[in-house]
Design a protein that fits this description.
alpha+beta; single chain; 6-stranded antiparallel beta sheet; Jelly Rolls
Length: 300
């Protein structure tokens, strides 16, 4: 099987986890990786299997999923080019906490746990650099967990709006109001009136009001793209709202599952306590029975 090439070394240098490695250390480290290719539909690993390898995705897509208690597959995330996964299992060898399935033909680099540990034993500088990168990633993950999932979509969009986008929203908001309709009808009526009845001056745009038609065409031509800009913003809001809803639902489902596990543990503990109490009661009843029997025998 072919080992990594210069292109693979350059690719690894752009992966955030390995960006702290120097050129020589990175070259040595790249030598223990193996290029791998998988077709659509293949299972890379399943939840509960031993963590014996780490992967860095070069192309394609991989879905990370878990199965719920009601036998439904829950999608956690979709990994794409440049993403890496399975790094924590290289250190502790703990079972996989999720499953990985190929949803688009994938090419990635793989490193086995034994090769990884052997390499680190001979290269402590690399070990320190990787530990620092993993620690930073864990801090970032903790910050994301602590952040509120339920956020205001309007505030999320408002922070990134440009001046032109704000103007487009204001124009679209006014153009879709009764105030605009009333103002537009008033202007049309006034224009028709002053160009139909010759009172104080000769009409500048007599019937059939060609100049008015030109102005109406210009208004329509300008108003349409401005309204489209605002509608695109609404589509973006809907996308952000859907993403936030997914995060809320996912977090809620994971918390509910955690509560179920805690309730099961409490129930199991209570059952165990009840059994202990039953044993003690049975023991006391037996002692009481033996004492009563002994008293009766002495009296008899």
């Amino acid at each position: 099987m072919d080992r990594t090439t210069a292109a693979d070394i350059d690719f690894l240098s752009h992966v955030s986890l390995f960006s702290a490695l120097s050129g020589e250390n990175l070259r040595k480290f790249a030598g223990v990786w193996t290029p791998v290719s998988r077709d659509v539909g293949q299972i890379l690993f399943k939840k509960g299997e031993p963590s014996d390898a780490m992967y860095v995705l070069r192309s394609g897509k991989i879905a990370i999923t878990v199965w719920t208690e009601d036998n439904q597959e829950l999608l956690l995330t979709v990994l794409a080019e440049g993403d890496f996964f399975g790094e924590l299992g290289l250190f502790d060898g703990s079972p996989r906490t999720a499953s990985a399935k190929i949803i688009e033909k994938a090419e990635f680099l793989e490193i086995k746990r034994d090769d990884f540990l052997n390499f680190l034993r001979g290269n402590p500088d690399v070990c320190i650099a990787l530990a620092g990168a993993i620690a930073q990633r864990l801090r970032t993950t903790n910050m994301l967990i602590e952040q509120r999932t339920t956020r205001n979509v309007n505030e999320e969009i408002e922070h990134v709006l440009t001046l032109g986008q704000r103007i487009a929203d204001k124009v679209a908001q006014f153009g879709g109001s009764w105030g605009f309709v009333a103002l537009f009808i008033g202007i049309l009526a006034f224009w028709v009136a002053i160009n139909t009845v010759e009172i104080f001056f000769h009409p500048i745009d007599p019937f059939p009001y060609s100049f008015l038609n030109l102005l109406l065409g210009l208004v329509s031509a300008l108003q349409a793209p401005i309204i489209m800009m605002s509608q695109n913003r609404q589509s973006e809001k809907d996308r952000v709202r859907a993403e936030l809803d997914y995060q809320v639902n996912l977090k809620s489902e994971m918390q509910i599952q955690s509560l179920h596990l805690k309730l099961d543990e409490i129930r199991a503990y209570e059952i165990q306590e009840m059994r202990e109490v039953q044993r003690e009661l049975i023991s006391l009843l037996r002692k009481q029975e033996e004492f009563t029997t002994r008293i009766l025998q002495e009296k008899g």
